[in-house]
Write a structure and sequence with these properties.
Elements lengths: L29 E3 L11 H14 L2 E5 L5 H15 L3 H5 L10 E3 L3 E2 L2 E2 L4 E3 L34 E4 L5 E6 L5 E4 L6 E3 L7 E5 L1 H6 L9 E3 L8 E6 L6 E2 L17 E2 H13 L22
The structure holds 2-oxoglutaric acid (AKG) and fe (ii) ion.
Length: about 300
């Protein structure tokens, strides 16, 4: 009955809650990128075909031997832990706002339900930010939260990424689920050391005119703290996103109307801040109505 006193903002509709045990995914493609870095004889076409198949079948895959140095990932993970171990006032000092959207926040909403997570958004700049503060404090998470039923909430609600492509680092705790395309089941993505997860985002879905679909995913609430770092590839804000000219034809017409990425992104971001009474913006809103051919 613990859920009764839980803040209702976090409660997922029954059909969106994670089942007590989510099967670990079998067969998520694991792609070795090392041929890209070989001196010669690189079979880029074969690798591209593998990426194409994975994007089509799953919209999700894991890359290994990607040439990002282990110590770079370790330093980023260390900086992340140091930041989230800071006292609330220090984190709040760099809180994001509707006007300045980068920084710390803990009240994100996905599909109008509050996520059980904290985040720190940043964009790459020419001048790297200063190193994290030297004073690292331990987190003050209680072992259990009275009256709080984690199984009713999600760390991050079900969604598809609005970007072109996401490169995601997750630590060894796990909890990321992807909706398997072949049967619609939620399956858990097993953490693989020294790997990144790549997922196809909405923009690639539109550019490819639905050939590569954006994968739906979510994150469960864990007993243990979990850290992840998603890197979202965005085009320039003035970009008009639409199916690529070279792949649309009379037989295969564009399935989407063009939309301005910058406008889409800022509308989506506004919905992250608070629960809206309407559905947040989705690419489905730009899908052309099916043409009915009456003879
Ligand atoms: O934390 C994760 O593993 C996933 C993060 C994610 O899906 C997102 O931020 O869009
Ligand atoms: Fe995501």
């Amino acid at each position: 009955m613990g859920g009764l006193s839980m803040d209702q903002a976090f409660v997922q509709a029954p059909e969106h809650r994670a089942k007590p045990s989510v099967a670990e995914a079998d067969g998520i493609p694991v792609i070795d990128l090392s041929p890209l870095f070989a001196a010669d004889g690189v079979d880029v076409d074969a690798l591209a075909a593998e990426v194409g198949r994975a994007s089509q079948d799953w919209g999700f895959f894991v890359v290994v031997r990607h040439a990002v140095p282990e110590e770079v990932v370790a330093r980023a993970a260390e900086a992340q832990r140091a930041f989230f171990a800071l006292p609330p006032a220090r984190r709040a000092a760099v809180a994001r706002s509707e006007a300045a959207q980068m920084g710390y926040y803990a009240s994100d909403h996905t599909q109008n339900v509050r996520d059980w997570k904290e985040a720190f958004d940043l964009v790459p700049t020419r001048h790297p930010p200063p190193p994290p503060p030297a004073v690292v404090l331990d987190n003050k998470w209680p072992d259990d939260l009275p009256g709080f039923s984690p199984d009713l909430a999600l760390g991050l609600g079900h969604h598809k990424d609005a970007c072109a492509l996401t490169v995601l680092y997750q630590d060894a705790v796990g909890g990321l689920d992807v909706r398997r395309r072949c049967d619609g089941e939620w399956v858990r993505v097993r953490p693989i050391p020294q790997s990144f997860i790549i997922n196809v985002g909405d923009i690639v879905q539109v550019w490819s005119n639905d050939r590569y679909e954006s994968a739906e995913h979510r994150v469960a609430v864990n007993v243990e703290e979990r850290f992840s770092m998603p890197f979202f590839f965005y085009p320039a804000s003035y970009t008009m996103v639409e199916p690529l000219e070279e792949i649309v034809s009379e037989e295969s017409p564009a399935r989407y109307n063009p939309y301005c990425w910058g406008k889409f992104f800022s509308t989506r971001k506004n919905g992250d801040f608070k629960k809206l009474d309407v559905d947040n913006i989705q690419i489905a809103h730009f899908r052309k109505k099916a043409l009915v051919h009456i003879q």
